[in-house]
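Quick one: structure for this chain?
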Amino acid sequence: MTEWQDQVLATLLCQDSPLIVALDPDLLLLDEQIFQTLQANHFDLLTYTDPIAFRHAYEPNYREPRDNGRETPRLIVRFPHTRRESVPYDLLQQSECIQISLSELFPGLDYKTVQTLGPQYYDALFEAAHKIRGKRFGRKHTAAFILDQIFSIRPDDIRTSTDLIALFCRVHYHHQTIPPILIDHCLEIWTDRHFAGFSEIKDLFDHDTFMAYLQDEWAKYIGGNSPAPTVPFDHDQIRLYIDTFFIEGALKPLRALPSVQVPQWAHCGIVNDQETEQLYRLNSLLDRIQEFLPGPDTRLNDWKQYARLWAEAVVLVSALSPATTPDQVKTRYHTLHQTLETTFRDWLFKTFPTLPDRPYLPAPVMVHQIPHYLAHHAGERTALIVMDGMALDQWLIIKEILGDGFTYSEDLVCAWVPTLTSISRRSLFAGEKPSLVSGVNRKTLSEENLWRTFWHNQSRPERDIGYSRGNTLVSDTEVDELVHDATPRIAGFVINTIDNLMHRNIMGMPQMHLDVRHWVETGTLRRFITRLLDRGYQVYITADHGNICTPGMGVPQQGDLVEETSARARIYDHASFADEGHQAFPEDSCVWPSNYLGTGHTVLLADGLKAFFKKDEEILSHGSISMEEVFVPFVQIRSAQQCHR
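Got it. Here's what it folds into:
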C-alpha cells in the first residue's frame, strides 16, 4: 500500500456511518488495492451510474434488510462526479458524504493535467510530488514535471531524428501511455525542429502505429537496397530494444536475402530456420514472463500485457512440433501457465466488482461497454464484427494472415463471467450488465432486440440499425449478402466460424490454429472487411469470450439439475446444486458469485486448467476465468491506404 492509497483509505475508514456517499470523479475507489482493502474491512462498494440499476442492487440487498433490523455490510455508494446535488435525497439523509479526488492528492499540480494520467503512474507521481511540496504549478509546468519525473522525457533534449526514434523505442518498450496533453507539450517545444523522415510525429506515440512504422523500416534494413531505412537500427540507443520487440511479437521476423550481410545482433529479426527461431522466441518469451510474474497487486493494464505475451506463447507452442520440442520447454510452459492462471483467478475474484463500472472512455474495459464506446465515436457508418469465441491467440493468427493491407488499433476488453455466449454476448449487444438483461433463461429480449434498443436509445432510426447472426464467411456470396448498398449504417455482425471450429475440434489448439489459418486464407474475411471499409464504415472487431484447451477431470453426475453447461462452466437455478457439484471436485472447481447474473442462478466454474469432461482427455472450451477466456481483442481496423491519405 502506498502513501496516496493510505490517504484515500484513511478518509473512508474513519467514518462511522453504515452508509457512505463518496464523490469520486477520478476512480480512486476502483483502484485494485484500495478496493481489496475496503473489502477486507467489510465494506461493499456500489457505483451509481443508472438509477434503475442502482435501486435493483441497493433496495433488496441493503436498504430493506437494514430497515428490518438485519445486519448488512457497510456500504459505500460511489458517484463518478462531484455534484452533491445529483445524489438522491434519501441517500444524503442517511449517509456521510465525502469527496475524494486527485486535486487533494496532488494539490501542487494542475488538476486537469493530472487527470489525464493512468492510475499506474500515481505511485511514482505521489513520490515525485514531495519534491515540490509548498509550490503550485500551472498547466505547462505540470506537463513538464510529469514528463520529466514519470516518463523521463525531456523534450528539450530531443534534437535529432535518432533521439526521437530512441525515445519512441523506450516509451513503447515500457508500454507507457503518454496522455495527449503531454504529447502536445512535446510537439510545441519541437515546433521549430526538423526531424528528417518524420511528418506525423504525434501518431508515433501510438504503440500500433509506431510498430507498423518500425516494421516497414526493418524490411528496408534487412533488404539491403534503396531506399535506405530512416531508422538507424545499429545505434546503441535503438538496437537494445529491438530484440524485445521481436520476442513480444510487436515486430515480425522477415526473411533476408543470402546476399545481405546483417550483424549478429540483428538475427533476432531474421527468419532462417523457422522452428529454431520459434523455439528461441518461446524460450525468450517465457524468460520475460518469468522475470516479471504478476502478483495480487497487479493492475488491469499489466494483466492485459501478460495476456498479450501469453497469447504469443500459445501461438508459438501450437506451431512447434511436439516431437522436436524439448521436454524441459514443455514442462516450463505448463508450469508457468498454471502459475499465471492461478494468480489471475485470485486477482479476478477480488477485482471483478470494480471492472463493470469503470468508464468506457478512453477505452472500454468490459464487453458491455463497447456499444457505448461506439456510440461516442460513431461516424456516419459503424460496423461491429463479433467473432464468436475468438481468443486472443487466434486473433494474432488472423491479423498475421490479413497482413499489411490494414492497420490496427488494438486493445483488450474483459468478457463477462461465466464466459458463455448466453451471458457475455447478450451483455455485449445490450450494452448492459447481465444482471439487467437476465441472460440465462432466454425468455427476455433477443440479442437483436437488445442491440436495436440500445441504438434506439441513442436516437438512431430503425432503418439505420442492423444485426445479423449465424454467419460463417466461407463464401463470397455470403459477403455479398451481408455488405451491399442497403446494409444499415449501424451494423452488428456475429461471425460463428471460430466457435464452430472450436466445438468440432478433437486435436487441441494446434489443430484449432491450423483451422483458423485455413479459414482466413480463403480470403472471405479480408473481402468482408474491405467491402465495409470501402463503403465508409468504421470497422471494429471483438469477441464475446475466448477459449482454452484443458484436460478433463470428470463430470458431476447431476442429471437435469444443471440449467446450462459447458466443459468449463455449469449454471444452476439453485445454489445447493452448485455446491453439490463443487463437492464432487473441491480442489478443481469454484463457485462464482451469483449476484453478477441477477437471476438467482449460481455458476460452478472449472478451476485453473481443468474441464468438466472425460478424465485426462483434452477439450477446447470456454465458460471459466482463464486469461484466454476473459481477455478478448477489441480492434479498430482501417485500410492502410486510408491511413496514408
